[in-house]
Structures are given as structure tokens and as C-alpha cells.
Amino acid sequence: MPTILANELELTKKYNTICGVDEAGRGPLAGPVVCSAVIFDLVKLASSTNEEVAYLITNLNDSKKLSEKKREKLFPLIKKYAKEFSIIAVEPLEIDKLNILHATLAGMDRALDTLVEKWELALIDGNKLPPLHKDKSQYVIKGDASYFSIAAASVLAKVTRDKIMTDLHLQYPHYNWLKNKGYPTKEHRQAIAEYGITPYHRLSFAPCTELTIPELINN
pTM score, two decimals? Predict the structure, then answer.
């Protein structure tokens, strides 16, 4: 049994229902930060003989350690075999208003609020807790490589955000978000210097801070 599943199964001795929470997109210059929360019936999952479940258990990991192809294959399996999940996007305007840390924590709170299933413990990737649920939460540094539900949340958040940036690339091809997903690559920074910024750039992030949005950026 993979360690990340075994770790979380151990917690079920104390907590009947565990929720994993993670985000994707704190570092980019453009696009939303996406937060996800996932609940599994871990005991049922571990005892299943279903081939899809076996693939999910064997291959699920921190989304950063998975290829895009594998993330895309795991994404529908997580949604299919989770008891419940939620995915929340926090847009650049709110990121600029709150700052990226507080926007991320707000997104995690909303993801947890969206769940109907009653959970006893939320495992939060990172070193901060979402303020509205801190009394029922526990943060785990590098939790997406340590606990099954956090890893699942990391995949849902990452795949969803990548799809958003791929769609935005069609509208703003100069920045090649299809490839860089809004992260501050050299190519992306050069495009900002040449074409300016879009409504999807984060104005609180350098080098976007002092720039204005051209009217015809997609021409």
C-alpha cells in the first residue's frame, strides 16, 4: 500500500471523515489561484478490487511529481471515486485586494464551505490554516506528498488551473500561457514588456504593478 494512503488510513482510527485541501497557482503573474478540497471513503477505497481504483491508489501523488498525462488520467478518477470534492478559483482582482496568501486561504475556506459531507479533520497543505476552519484543520508541510486526500486535491487544483490558462491562451496568445501557465518565465516577462498586461494579470505582482492594460492586447 502506498505510504500516502497508509498515512491517511492511520488517521481514520481517530477521525471518521478526513478532507484534503490544496491549491495551485500561488506563484504565477497571471490567472487565478485554484483551491480544492476532497473527501474519500478511505477504508472502502483501500479494500476495493476495482482496476481504476487500483490505478488511482498506485499512481496518485503530489501533482508536481506527476506528468501532465498522468494528472489528466487521474483527474476524472479522483472525481469519480471521491465521496465529495469542491474546486474554487480565486481571481486576480481578489488576489490583488487581499494578497496572494490571504486569497489562497479564503479560497480554501470556500472550498471547505462548499462541501455537504460532514468532515472531522481537514488536512491543509502548507504551513498556514484557513481562518474560518482553523479549529478543525491541521496543516502539513509538503502534505501533497504525504497524504492521499491532499494529493488528490493538488491534482484537481492543478489540472483545473492549467485548463483555465490553456483557454485564456486562445484569447491572449502573446504570453504563451499554453506552455508557461502564467508563471514568470523569461518568455512571459518579455511578452509583458512588449505587449503590456491583460485583465488576467495580477497587478500586485512585479513586473505588473506599474503597468496599464492596453485596449487591444489580443490583436
Answer: 0.94
